[in-house]
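chain below, 308 aa
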Amino acid sequence: MTEILILGSGPAGYTAAIYSARAGRRTKLISGPNPGGQLMITSLVENYPGFAEPIAGPELMQQMLLQTERAGVEICSDVIATVDLSVRPFVCVGESGERYKTKALIIATGARARWLGIPGEEKYRGAGVSSCATCDGFFFRNKHVVVVGGGNSAVEEATYLSKMVRQVTLIHRRDALRADKIMVERLLANPKIQVVWDTEVTEIVGDENRVTTLLLANVKTGEATEMAVDGVFIAIGHDPMTEIFKSQLDLAFNGHISVCGRGTQTSVTGVFAAGDVCDPFYRQAVTSAAHGCMAAIDADNFLSVLGQ
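prediction:
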């Protein structure tokens, strides 16, 4: 039994754990399938307060991990497979078989990369198809790669890759990028990046070993073309990791966990949500951390009202 159990180890999870422990609560954190969250595949973070110089995403998450451990939080390397939120104490069962009981639960499971769902994508995943430039960019040094997408993730991936590859082609199905203005300006000014507008990737083709070609279609004219490439990075967004909660918590139309107003209370009393798992709009490290702080305070207040 623990007082506050936290699922997830991104900025929201770690911050919730730090605040919970500092409130004197017995706190346990389950790291989940992707310890460190999405920042583990982010190159440089320039907009997180407290760092005058850019900091690498993995380095930032390592600092959060160390701070969480120093706060006295018990961190478990496990993945939650099932949950029972029908009665308190809540019970979460890990893939390890371990049963975790808690008086209050904070869900900070984040989101996962979204894929195109086109022919060849799954076949060549890990053989030229990737969703993580930081993880796989090294393997494409001095080669030509494509980034698919038009938001902040796509622009960041393309900019990061341009530092090591020969050429980056950003393919977007619209005629304007949705990323932050300053990021777009930097991308368009980068001589190693070219943008192909109003175009979709319809198929990924390769030989027995790797990706070699992309089949493209102009969304306005329907014209079909081919592009020789060495790799393709899919950066079209993420889906909240809420599968195990679907039958037990109210979810928004987009799959995110619904919370009450600007707080973190979910549809089940004593269960709170923080970060990208409930935030389809901001999706920033700093807002996730703020959500984690809020969830920890909400959980502590919930237990205090009950006299626990």
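The radius of gyration is 21 Å. Residues 285-305 form the longest helix (21 residues).
thats it, cya
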